[in-house]
Specification:
The complex is a heterodimer.
Chain A (H helix, E strand, L loop, with lengths): L3 E3 L2 E5 L4 E6 L6 E7 L6 E7 L4 E3 L4 E5 L4 E6 L8 E8 L6 E3 L3 E6 L1
Parallel strand pairs in A: 2-11
Antiparallel strand pairs in A: 1-3, 3-8, 4-5, 4-9, 5-6, 7-8, 9-10, 9-11
Chain B lengths: L3 E4 L2 E4 L5 E7 L5 E8 L3 E10 L2 E4 L7 E2 L9 E3 L8 E8 L12 E2 L3 E5 L1
The chains are: A mainly beta, B mainly beta.
Chain lengths: 110, 117
């Protein structure tokens, strides 16, 4: 079952902040976040592991509530380059068997 | 350069004509996966492999086969393609964590756009 992402789409002006949420009904080992620009492959942003460990880019921040099986990605002081579709992927087995959400489209305008 | 390559990048074929999409990675990764991406549905995992000769079904395996005879290669086989398999396909790889699982980022190939007429 795919995790549920919200919102489905966000439009921002440069410099504004956004939060993208990801919710699963299953217990998770980890949550992955990726960004995809049109016509390109998804690019890794961050992994949040059960137990609190995180791996990812320094300028990206995210949280993982293990009890609620929810994760949020925080985009602060957005730049034009942040535009794209953001996907969360949930890993229930610990073997990178990711189930991705349907995506959140983010558009940052000047 | 560390990368995942896929071939072909674009393919138009007809219903029932067997095809193979190749995937190769040069990072010595243990884990490899195939995904399909359709508008409004996100990425859905077709098959994954944890190592040579070890493969398992993902969320949408019907109509697909895979094999993992070498660590670097993970081809996707469509024995009898149908129009509902028209999609954008991504191969991905990731390294194994010391504990045995994979809590690492997935590296995606550039994608293969398949059209089945």
């Amino acid at each position: 079952q795919q995790p549920v992402q919200s919102p489905q789409a966000v439009i921002l002006r440069e410099g504004e902040d956004a939060v993208i949420n990801c919710s699963s009904s299953k217990a998770l080992y980890s949550v992955h976040w990726y960004r995809q620009k049109h016509g390109e492959a998804p690019v890794f942003l961050m992994i949040l592991l059960k137990g609190g460990e995180q791996k990812g880019h320094e300028k990206i921040s995210a949280s993982f509530n293990e009890k609620k099986q929810q994760s949020s990605l925080y985009l602060t002081a957005s730049q034009l380059s942040y535009s794209g579709t953001y996907f969360c992927g949930t890993d229930k087995k610990g073997y990178s068997t990711l189930t991705f959400g349907k995506g959140t489209m983010l558009l940052v305008s000047p | 350069e560390a990368q995942v390559t896929q071939n072909p990048r674009y393919l138009i074929t007809v219903t029932g004509k067997k095809l193979t999409v190749t995937c190769s990675q040069n990072m010595n990764h243990e884990y490899m996966s195939w995904y399909r991406q359709d508008p409004g549905l996100g990425l859905r995992q077709i098959y994954y492999s944890m190592n040579v000769e070890v493969t398992d079904k993902g969320d949408v395996p019907e109509g697909y086969k895979v094999s993992r005879k070498e660590k670097r290669n993970f081809p996707l086989i469509l024995e009898s393609p149908s129009p509902n398999q028209t999609s954008l396909y991504f191969c991905a790889s990731s390294p194994r964590t010391s504990g045995g699982g994979s809590y690492n980022e997935q590296f995606f190939g550039p994608g293969t756009r398949l059209t089945v007429l």
